[in-house]
């Protein structure tokens, strides 16, 4: 984290002031809150935002430092520990991919990115989300294979894919095997 912050500080001379602002506010927090994982959640969300190349509805403008990340559009947090529990960015016309750091959001129980233009592969790091129950990625342009590491997500009951086309299917993941039983979603 320190390393990336130093890198961002070098961007001080870059006209992109957003980077400087983010980095400064993180530095202020470092002294008192570095041990709190909610700070790491915030960094992971900022990393997620960084990969978004198109955001026609400008929802990411709410992902700013004047409001707490638990109030950012699409983000909801646990009331008890302030950690991110769901990420719901359905039908926002976002063009992006999913960074490996999503695996840092270790309290996530649900991810819904349905109906956007996410591309690339689903990162193996999703396997670090041991509380994940719903992963809904239909209607996107994901490629590659489904991460085998998803078998570590033992709570995962609804894996809505396939990632290889834009048809709505329901997949039920068996925690004891790497195979997925896929059936057409009939609604
Ligand atoms: C993280 O949690 C601590 C302790 O509850 C709180 O004081 C702090 O404001 C939180 N920071 C963020 C960025 O949510
Ligand atoms: C994610 O966590 C890893 C390991 O704790 C850390 O090295 C990395 O900087 C974190 N990434 C982000 C974007 O916070
Ligand atoms: C931050 O987001 C809030 C909520 O969308 C918005 O009202 C506010 O203008 C934003 N602030 C900045 C500096 O963009
Ligand atoms: C996808 O999102 C667009 C708006 O972003 C909406 O018009 C469309 O109906 C959605 N399609 C599905 C299948 O949900
Ligand atoms: C795969 O999942 C395991 C178990 O959660 C985790 O320790 C490992 O870091 C994950 N692999 C990657 C590449 O993220
Ligand atoms: C996708 O996620 C939404 C919101 O969580 C849910 O209502 C919907 O049923 C999910 N679709 C499938 C096919 O699981």
Automatic annotation (TrEMBL):
InterPro entries: Leu-rich_rpt (IPR001611), LRR_dom_sf (IPR032675), LRR_N_plant-typ (IPR013210), PGIP (IPR051848). It is a single-pass membrane protein. The keyword Transmembrane helix applies. Keywords: Leucine-rich repeat, Membrane, Repeat, Signal, Transmembrane, Transmembrane helix. Residues 40-78 form the Leucine-rich repeat-containing N-terminal plant-type domain. It is found in: Cell envelope; Membrane. Its main location: other. Pfam families: LRR_1, LRRNT_2. One of its GO terms (cellular component) is membrane. Residues 1-34 form the signal peptide. Belongs to the polygalacturonase-inhibiting protein family. This is Leucine-rich repeat-containing N-terminal plant-type domain-containing protein. It comes from Salix brachista. The lineage of its organism: Eukaryota, Viridiplantae, Streptophyta, Embryophyta, Tracheophyta.
